[in-house]
Amino acid sequence: MSFTSLTFWTFFAVIFIAYWFMREQRWQNLLLLLASYVFYGWLAPWYALLLGTSTLADFILARRMRAHREKTKVYLALSLLLNLGVLAFFKYYGFFNTQVAEALTSLGVTVDWLFIQIFLPAGLSFYTLKKLAYTLDVSRGTLEPSDDIVSFALFVSFFPQIVAGPIDRYQKLMPQIQQRRLWQPDFFYSAWPLLVTGFFKKIVVADTIKSVVDRIFALNEPSVLLVLAGALGFTLEILADFSAYTDLARGIAQLLGFNTSENFNRPYLSLTPTEFWNRWHITLSTWLRDYIFFPVRRRLLRRSKPLPAWLNQSIPPLVTMFVSGLWHGAGLTFVVWGIYYGILIAGYQLIGLRGDWKPAGRLKSFFAWLIMFALIAFGWLIFRAPSMTWLLNVFTRSEWIHGQADLIVAVTLFSMTVVYSLPILIKHLLDQYVPRGFAHSFYYAALTIGILIFTSSVTSDFIYFQF
Fold it and tell me: Where is the domain boundary, 116, 149, 182?
């Protein structure tokens, strides 16, 4: 079920009414758990079976860590093997089976079974990180394992965020699951701006830009100008699409009495790569920081033979962003995209430009922003490219422009990108400089009209469903 479908909102209306008629927190949790599994297994029931099996395994393993501290590393290794093994199989099977099949075929071995198509269960990458953070924290002794299987299973499967986050930690979500929840009007007043903004960014902005961007990236030999226009369009599309999902997820959770994490904080205003990742997909960035970056950095600093300072500074971001690229997908474009950001972060830090760096003067700030925005857009070009071969051919073989038609399409897409960016920019200006009141109400009313105008068009899945 998609958040933008009538099926989902019919489903949610039933759950919402039944949920708030219940007065006991345990019955509310049971209902939400049932709803989460129905939601997740709607298209493929075996998704829910996989979710339930892996959840039960981590619940037991974490309890065993507490009961047998001397075997903590063994149980942690089992949890890592289970979670990473399942994730790697579903995420990377399609990437490797073709290469293996071709190699075996060249040896005369029939391997038709290798070409079986196995689909990645939606949300697997997200709830896997949730569970890994939980078992890692338990193994470190910084978190007591849960004794309530219903609450733990709800923490893992909470349906507003299971498909594409936010990746809330146990420490944030579990206290809310375990407390009594009674309806408050503030839940609605907090939720509706998020819902309106989310619907607008998805239906009006992301899907409209997507219709042109997808055609450009489907071309075999596009001109450089078209590709640059497509990269800029995708830069807007992915922000609008992913932040729309987060807004909708947070709004739905708010209607159920839960306060979930903010995932975006005006990332395209960043001046450095580190600042960008502190503002973009915040819950993933903090996960990577806490469980990849810091452990790698500590391991390097504890070496008996210290490495040069520049290596100690460069290796952690390179490893972290390489893992980020692998998490997003098995394609070479994702890996290169991750390494690209690792190099940017390390390079900026080596010249003293960390995440909190602010240049003196508006002119310097503007050029720092302009350079960073160009780097971000180029990163999204790598991310969106059909393949690295396609991208290299664009810059080594393609002409700057093929003809007048290219110019018209490029100018049209540039114009669309600017125009459809305006509502997001206006929202930022309102939040920064205008007190809550009539201006904000008028803004949300205008967005609602836009949603009603565009709602009859076909809505695509959210981009991050594939990760």
Answer: 182
